[in-house]
# Entry
Amino acid sequence: MTLTAPVSLRRQVPLTIDGQPVTVFEGATILDACSQQGVEVPTLCFLETLTPVNVCRICVVEVTGSRVLVPACSRKVEPGMEVQTASERVRTSRRMVLELLGSSVDLSLAGDDVQRWISEYGARPERHGRQATGDEGDAGSVDGVVRGSTRDTAHAGHHAAPSGDAALTVAQPVKRDNPQYVRDYSRCILCYKCVEACGVDAQNTFAIAVAGRGFDARISTEFAIDLPDSACVYCGNCIGVCPTGALMFVSEHDMRARGEWDESRQSVTRTVCPYCGVGCNLELHVQDNRIVKVMSPLDHDVTRGNLCVKGRFGFEFAQARDGGAS
Amino acid sequence: MDLRVTAAPATQEERAAVDSVLGLPTSGWSGGERSPFDGRVAFSGVPDGARGNGRHKGAAETRRDLLLPALHALQERIGHISPEGLGYVCRRLEVPPAEAYGVASAYALFSFDAGPELVVHVCDDIACLAASGRPEPPAASPGVANGHSPGVGGPASVGAIAWRPSPCLGHCEHGSAVLAQRSGEEGGRTTLAPFTSADYQKLTDLGPSLGLAAMAGPDVRVPQAATDRASLRLLRRVGVVDPESLDSYRAAGGYEALRRAIALGPAGVIEELKQAKLLGRGGAAFPTGLKWEAVARNPVRPHYFVANADESEPGTFKDRVLLDHDPYALVEALTIAGLTTGAERGYVYLRGEYPLAESRLLHAAEEARRKGLLGEDVMASGLNFDLEVRRGAGAYIAGEETALFNSIEGRRPEPRNKPPYPADRGLFQKPTGVNNVETLFCVLEILSRGSLEFAACGTEGSTGTRLFCLSGCVTSPGLYEVPLGTTLRTLLDLAGGVRGDRPMRAVLLGGAAGSFVGPSDLDMPLSFEGAREAGTTLGSGVVVVFDDTVDMADILRRIAQFFRDESCGQCVPCRVGTVRQEELLARIASGTLIGSEGDELALLADLGVVMRDASICGLGQTASSAIESAVRRGLVSTETRGPVS
Ligand SMILES: Cc1cc2nc3c(=O)[nH]c(=O)nc-3n(C[C@H](O)[C@H](O)[C@H](O)COP(=O)(O)O)c2cc1C
Ligand code: SF4
Ligand code: SF4
Ligand code: SF4
Ligand code: FES
Ligand code: FES
# Structure
């Protein structure tokens, strides 16, 4: 058991955010201090339930005395810290992070906030040129054998020189190798959340990890084998944390493909998983009287957003009963 | 953790390779025979050598640092890492296969497809480009055309030689270089430099065995040894002592520094380093005395000390020369570091492309151990210290100190977020000291000559001598040692100036992460503060000279490619920014601009800002520095020829 000092005994740390004095508890991050102050700091790779990996760098802020910008999501506050969240330097870096992601990844399902930030910060991904399609990636196999996406076998290190006539992207075919969920890595921003959820932060299965290097870095099973051959147990916790729609229920993916997905016609019902006695909370997303996806609330103290295969995907029996009519 | 390894059983040969590193498995649970129907492996509970502290922290955690050595063994014996071979390693070490694959695939020297017996990595990096032009391996060889390994030398070319382009191999003074990576029973690595077109032919004609046997190893190029040996300090034993003889090293004054360090005690040694004002030579110029003090004072145990010998900055070869020709000095210096900072275990993290240094270091450590200079009760001091040599596998980023720790630990070589700093949480999350090889050589100098004498050389802010790696279009390329503060002009004069008396175009200081200066900067003093004032850096002591015949656009594209190839991929600014930077230079080179040249230069500047300001580590933070300095000097434009002002 770890002992933490009662809240009342924890030290208070004074700092300023955009010139305004703030006081927060010791151990808080700059991001915590900003939210307390109502200052919006965009985040992509941060999630309350996961260890910060601080890789997306969209949350960077300026701290007086620091040579480079610092990630608000993981940097702890220090007494007297002077934080700028909207300086020109901060805005430029955030704009460029959005521009770089926008020019290389399909962000269309990454949520309204991302779209809003792109316009607020004035990111123009098109400055980097026409986006290459999946077939144009330079990670091509040289022996003419393509196993899955060419990105799956890209070797670390030397690359063919780009011609410069298109911006390299992560575009690649959707991976659909199991009945539960699809992996559409053309949408992946490499936020590491799924890896953390599958590993030490929740599931401890370690079915997926980051493989490769540089722009070829990717989420992968060993040797990019199909999920059914891997250690995956289909808990779907990776889907629960994915911010970009790269990991998606087959039901949602197919409905979107058919143009039937319509969140305005969906209701979300909170209930308790019927399978075992743990008491995991479920959020059933229902459209047209059918369960289309199952999530779990992050703020719930039993499982903090995590489920197992039964809670996550074992809803077909419910459909079968009412589906008998359809 | 529920370890699930689904790969089929490994071959006898694969198991033998892995067992040569890990020892024989003690039971079926830890890698011996299993039923093929049971892919799920639970912890055996059998204490297996170094393991034995049970399941609590995850048994996998306790031996994971052997992952990289085990992968090396597979690569060297089999020629590639198969799913079955990896699966066997995973069972032995209890590492999840996805993670092990994530680690292996981050290194350029590992391949995953069966290939030919001999893979020759050909340097096409800036110093060799400037000195000898683009290398041209035999035309029909697979792999070079597009530089990609999936399938390179697939089944069709088994028995042939695969040629692959490579970043700088640390032999820049020779003007061309290859690393021959051979697999099988006679597996091993050899570097050959210079490597001429006649050598390509010879190797192709004679084949791996005879061809490699017929090649001479690289010569030593320390020009001052012939002209002014008395001025050499760090290099004074190079070419003089027998690198394979402890007696020879001792006869040259070796192990006097350790004797003095033991007499002074930790506080005394640290005081000496502080008085000498020694600054780290690995790039960041951090005061070494303060670093050692922080580790020594940290109450958390155990402590570790690491010698950073991953030298991969293009244009750098100084640490290789020191290790190839004076390996005992590193063993002695690391021992001093360990005894002073309270570390009983040290690591030398050595670049995988330096096979000669590896065998000499291993030999030196073994000799030292035999003579009571390493291991228990070092030099009868009552203190223990031993070291291990860990080999990198082709990843520039692994030289960044925290990525280096991850690499030793068997994790992906990704830099960690700082703080916490290594003196607080370094290797295995314990207090760790880490220094560059040259810095550690300076420590020997300080202890054997005294801090005052050391500090008397150089400038007020930059004490001692510094090694400079001269390469490219220079008359006498090689490793030079001069007092810090010496001007660039004096240094270039020592090397005979620009080859063939041609006009100088530019000089790259500090490597790919450094910056270009021009003929008008020759009077700048080469000191930490002098470089800073001139808006550049000494970095790892790289000085690459370019004359008016070099296509600078090509050099800049090679630098951009280097960062794109070597980015670990963790953070967005560097992962995508290095790609966009390379594409942009390609557009400038081909004249197919998006918008005006001004638009492109503004975009280049924006890329520089986000990489410098928002990247996690020094790689991304400096990935635009040389290119931006080239823009400032008018080296980047659709018209790139003509001398720089
Ligand atoms: C991308 C990158 C690569 C590096 N490579 C090396 C290297 O190969 N050797 C080295 O000594 N330091 C390297 N460094 C610097 C180390 O992180 C560290 O600062 C150094 O080893 C400390 O030693 P010193 O204090 O003796 O200079 C690198 C840094 C970065 C950011
Ligand atoms: S479904 Fe669960 S086990 Fe499978 S990859 Fe996702 S998090 Fe890991
Ligand atoms: S798949 Fe989703 S959660 Fe995983 S790294 Fe990509 S964007 Fe993040
Ligand atoms: S700056 Fe580049 S090398 Fe460093 S952590 Fe980020 S992606 Fe990796
Ligand atoms: S949210 Fe902070 S770095 Fe991604
Ligand atoms: S060995 Fe070729 S550039 Fe260094």
About this structure: Chain A touches chain B through 70 residues (CB under 8 Å).
